[in-house]
Please model this.
Amino acid sequence: MDARDPITRTRGVGPVLGGRLAAAGCRRIVDLLAHLPLRYEDRRTVGRLPGADDAAVEPALSGALTVVARLENVKRVFGRRRFSRVEAVACDGAARVGVVWFNRPYLAQQLEEDVPYLLHGPLRRRGGDGPWQLSNPSVERIGEEPDDAPEFEGGGVRPVYGRIGEVPPSRVARLAADAIRDLRDSSGPDWIDEWLPREERTKHQLPRLAEALTEVHSPSSEASIEDLNARRSPAHARLAYGEFLLQQLQLAAARRQRRRSGKPHGYRADGAAWTEATGLLPFRLTGGQERVLGEIADDLGRKEPMLRLVQGDVGSGKTVLAALSCLIAARSDLQSALMAPTELLAEQHFASLERLLGCDMTIALVTSSQRVASDGGAVEERIADGRIDLVVGTHALIEERTRFARLGLAVIDEQHRFGVVQRQSLARKGLRPDLLVMTATPIPRSLALTVYGDLDVSILDEMPPGRRPVETRVTTDDGMEEAVEEVRRRLESGGRAYVVFPLIDGGEGTAAELPSLMESGPKWARALAVPCGVVHGRLRRRERDETMGRFADGSIQVLLATTVIEVGVDVPEATAMVILGAERFGLAQLHQLRGRIGRGTDPALGEPLCIAIAGQPSSEAERRLEVFAASTDGFRIAEEDMRQRGPGEILGTRQAGLPQFRFGDLARDWTWLVAARQDAAELLDRLADPANDALRRQLERRIPGLASSDGERGPRP
Ligand code: ADP
Ligand code: MG
Model:
């Protein structure tokens, strides 16, 4: 029996159960073992049931009690509204205590009297000061005869699992325990390939893989229950570190490959060329822009392709830097591509680039619905023969047939809508342009360096002059009327407004209090008494884009929307935003939303204002909203966001394309991630060493073809 065998080789798994497990992604035995227990119960010390007046035991019972007892009077009791419970009396020879189970009616048939059971669960006094009661304990038969009990020596540390698809937790527990035992019996203590090199294991004092998996599923009796439950045991650390190491090796390999490959093109750009290009702009660059542009210029001058992430708030002037870089490419007889997350944004970029640099280079727009060039000429063939300098489009640009004669520079805007995969698909097409990735979702620098391990990071933390910071107010539902007034005032001076709802319709959430677009939207439209448009994620892309377009050109003045506007159109006239159910949004998301307003510089529009209305904020939400109101600095907000929610939340759930970790947690295991990053850089040199065959195989399982594309060695059988 091998850990990579099909799950059906586990004892007790036939075709039916095997099918259910497979449906939940559990095809092999290792897949089952990758489902770690949710928590652990300590049943090592068998206690005694307390007597009726036994107050003294109470402090010791803050956790759960484990007892060996017989059961009497097992019966099903029907309560109100069809709820039933099972009740019994537990008796350990010295005392008798009532037991109650909820939602487990089958126990009434299963439990036998006069045989010993191991019970483990919380012991409480009914109603606070009534008789003792064990509530919902786990129950396990441990012998046949009443006399078996005294010999029983504790129940060890018991893992508690979640369900896998339709397979219930108790079944999962039994399967995992059986699998571990059988693997050990058939293949010895080292029953799964050890791929973590000895050096790293020794350095960090980590257990071997087989040992770690055994320990998490069948903890030894010396285990620390606190460490296990916090997932900080050596076994958990081994799994998390191992996972991080593989990811970091992958990133390090990509970095190395990039450095080795070199780029097929070069730029004719000295300092004077950049100065001349900058001089074409109708404004002076900010200090921050100068610095980042210097970093980009250095990259372009190097032999290896650039791979740079520019982070900066909406409006900080990232796109301008990209445009200058494209111009430098054009002057060096190279083409560039600028990719936006939506067609509408692509159109906007096209329009503003044309305005800015249309006289200095030929620009084309390529989306699924449009193909136009700034000079009105043909598009496809002039991209193919190199006469078009810059192509603006959606990411379809890199996926579709668009053929470039000499693609030197690719710019990706709003990185978080693009996965790492898309980023790399350029390389797979055999193109090795310089890559500039721009994102308006700042993440803390340390985090960026580690998670986007293959990117260099530039930070634009200064706003161009003239942009007025958005005033932010946080209120409760009482502030609704005032919000309407403020918005109307701004609409009257020619502004436009967003009203953001947390839900499309009321049926979605459990919290009935939250305002929804369908219910409250019409009320807002009536109260504001101007033409309003509606956008949300269930509309078709085309319909959504059309409404946003009408908002941009002013034929509607207010957008009633969900967070689909988060990455959206640039409407300089938008000066007001009301965010309803603000307690429901994360800090970064609130900040991202607010970035949609106050983009214009026309003083006639008045002060931009964002009003966040929170119905029933938790204390955590209140803190979040305080920070939101107090700061407009995206990086401050990102740091605070990370402090409040942990890096895992920031990176893991909302943003597509970022690595998802199964064992490791970016917040909890942060130091392991840093260690893995350092180790990976160094381990890469030793990867070809035969001693690391197992590691290389493991890496190839993750990323087929990695080792061969790295030029180290061909794939191995
Ligand atoms: P981002 O891409 O970071 O959202 P943009 O590059 O689109 O920002 O710039 C936002 C707006 O500010 C644009 O209208 C742009 O022309 C203007 N802008 C950019 N840099 C400056 C600057 N240094 N001085 C004045 N205006 C600027
Ligand atoms: Mg931009």
Summary: The pocket of magnesium ion (ligand 2) is lined by residues 318-319, 413 (CB under 6 Å).
